[in-house]
Amino acid sequence: MPPRIDDLAHEVLSPGDTGLPERAAGLTVAEFLETSPRLGEFWTPLTVLDADAMRRNAATIQAWAASKGMELMPHGKTTMAPALWNLQLEMGATGLTLATPGQVRTARSFGVSSIMLANALVAPSALAFIAGELADPDLSFRCWVDGVGTVEAMERGLAEALGAETALPRPIDVLVELGAPGGRTGARTLAEALELAERVAGSPVLRLVGVAGYEGSLGHDRSPAALAAVRAYLADLVALRDLLLDRGLLTPGGIAADDVIVSAGGSAYLDLVAEAFAPAIAADASAGRRTRWILRSGASLVHDHGFYRGISPLDDLLVPAMRGYARVVSHPEPGLALLDGGKRDLPYDEGLPVPLGIAPTLTGAATGDGARRLPEASVTALNDQHSFLRADDPAASLPVAVGEVVALGLSHPCTAFDKRRWLPVVEHAGSDLVVDLVRTFF
Question: GO molecular-function annotation terms (predicted)?
Answer without folding.
Answer: lyase activity
